[in-house]
Specification:
Helices cover 37% and strands 18% of the residues. By secondary structure, the protein is an alpha/beta fold. A 7-stranded mixed beta sheet has the order 4-12-11-10-7-5-6, with helices on both faces. Strands 1-2-3-15 form a 4-stranded mixed beta sheet. It binds pyridoxal-5'-phosphate. It is found in: Cytoplasm. One of its GO terms (molecular function) is diaminobutyrate-2-oxoglutarate transaminase activity.
Length: 393
């Protein structure tokens, strides 16, 4: 088939056509179990009837009106986010990169407004991923994503992840923000330690810097709590969300406190589509389902089952040396012998009717629907085992 798109993506050799729950069918009618969740986006599976209804209903009322006006769906979703998190105010945008871009701009401006022109340094972790805009690839700790686009925004320092001493040495009165993923997602589903996030919080407080938690991947129920920071008992100043926030309808957000929000005064930042009524109507309905105690308990329970099964499979096949992550955001770390081959395994899985992801070259990632049932999990695992065995043969 002719590809009319720029070649920055390496598309899989099939074309998905329709999907329901955790199952996807391609244009040839082949069925797949989806344990990748559209890269941690389809948190309620595909075409959840309540989300289809919310979208259909809103599509008859109002699609877009611009940020000259606010709308009921935007206020409704923001209210739910505020009432269920540390935050007092929400800014809506359309993606994770845009959310982090807003978070970083807010932190720079807050530092400048309250401390002066010297307070501009942003500290970020090596191997982190924060999006693909120029600012966010520069803050992200993977030079492969930024080096071709120099000159890059400046005054950004990278430190090794989970290294408290390195963070202590780096944070100073020049620092305006420290940005951390509670679980490094794209680079391998690697959780921050409790001590690390606590140290980051303390250092930010000591130096008047803001702690930004990038929960674009970890947020909206994937770890078994609404946001991963709740597991750590460490409260950020700014939190970024996207991916599962719209469960497949594009939306991003930052959440912050009443202390910081006024920095974004009229005209300081904006977005044409941010707060779009369609996106917010879907997000608002999705929020209620994800935030229900029974959904979060289901994530915890299914996550345990999946983790145990993957660990057993790792032992049985010798392909994995570790399974890590939280809830239904899990990574299987390849044994040294198979290092660098994660994409071979996801390709083999696809041939066996299973969608899974890589997270870096050494980790196979699972980010399925939070509503994943036993039957789909068992079938997915069966296909995964068959794929691994064929790949090993
Ligand atoms: C996916 C991701 C982003 C980027 O989100 P986009 O919607 O692709 O811009 C940023 N941060 C983290 C942690 C992510 O996983």
């Amino acid at each position: 088939m002719q590809n009319y798109l720029t070649p920055n993506f390496s598309f899989a050799p099939m074309i998905p056509e329709r999907a329901l729950g955790s199952r996807v069918w391609d244009t040839e009618g082949r069925e797949y179990i989806d344990l990748s969740g559209g890269i941690a986006v389809n948190a309620l599976g595909h075409c959840h009837p309540d989300l289809v209804a919310a979208l259909a209903e809103q599509s008859q009322k109002l699609w877009h009106i611009s940020n000259i006006y606010t709308t009921q769906p935007a206020q409704e979703l923001a209210k739910k986010l505020v009432e269920n998190t540390f935050a007092d105010k929400v800014f809506f945008c359309n993606s994770g990169a845009e959310a982090n871009e807003a978070a970083l701009k807010l932190a720079r401006k807050y530092g400048r407004d309250h401390f002066g022109e010297h307070k501009t340094e942003i500290i970020s972790c090596l191997n982190s991923f924060h999006g693909r805009t120029l600012f966010t690839v520069s803050v992200g700790g993977q030079p492969k994503y930024s080096k071709d686009y120099a000159p890059l925004p400046s005054d950004i320092t990278h430190v090794p992840f989970n290294d408290i001493a390195a963070l202590e040495a780096a944070v100073s009165d020049k620092t305006c923000a420290v940005i951390i993923e509670p679980i490094q997602g794209e680079s391998g589903i690697l959780p921050a330690t409790q001590e690390y996030l606590q140290a980051a919080r303390r250092l930010c407080d000591e130096h008047g810097a803001l702690l930004i938690l990038d929960e674009v991947q970890t947020g909206m129920g994937h770890t078994g709590k609404l946001f991963a920071y709740e597991h750590y008992g460490v409260t950020p100043d700014i939190l970024s969300s996207a991916k599962a926030l719209g469960c497949g309808f594009p939306i991003g957000a930052i959440m912050t406190t009443d202390k910081i929000a006024p920095t974004f005064g009229p005209g300081t930042h904006g977005s044409t589509f941010g707060g779009n009524p369609m996106a917010c109507a879907v997000g608002s309905r999705a929020f209620d389902i994800i935030n229900a105690p029974e959904t979060l308990a289901h994530v915890e329970q299914q996550g345990q089952k999946l983790q145990t099964a993957l660990r057993e499979l790792g032992v049985k096949t010798g392909v994995f040396k570790e399974v890590r992550g939280m809830g239904l955001l899990l990574g299987c770390v390849l044994a040294d012998k198979y290092a660098g081959k994660a994409s071979e395994i996801t390709a083999a899985a696809l041939k066996h009717g299973l969608m899974v992801l890589v997270a870096g070259a050494n980790v196979v990632r699972f980010a399925p629907s939070l509503l994943l049932n036993d039957e789909d999990m068992a079938e997915g695992l069966k296909r995964f085992e068959a794929a691994l065995n064929e790949w090993l043969a």
